[in-house]
Write the structure tokens for this entry.
Amino acid sequence: MATSKLKVLRTCEFCGKEFYAQKVSTLYCSKRCNELAYKKRRRQKQVIETEARVTQKPIEAVNEKEILSLKDTAILLGITKRSVYNLIYNGTLRAHKLSNRMTFILKSDIVLMFEGKTYVKEVKPERKPITE
Ligand SMILES: [Zn+2]
């Protein structure tokens, strides 16, 4: 039996109408339903992707960026925004002020900030006993 002669009664997965399909794999009654179903699937995929982005952990979102806001920088370093400001004000961290409300930090500058900051244990001078 040739496939083209086959008639399978199916229910369209998009509009719910019953139709005779020529192939077992046919899911939709018409080209239009097929296209609309495709669009619907694509829209749902976008919604899922958007939701994934929104519910993404902040640190993951920051990891993908090369240019960071002050908030991003705080998240990345696990410090407060206030501490980020302090690093900028004391010249430790280079920032780029584009306007009064827009300051950005290049991720490469964060890496650079660590140059020459190797932790060295301070040797405290021995306390002399108080002699009076
Ligand atoms: Zn249909």
About this structure: Residues 10 and 19 are 5 Å apart (CA to CA). Residues 12, 14-15, 17, 28-30, 33 surround zinc ion (CB under 6 Å). The first strand starts at residue 8 and ends at 11.
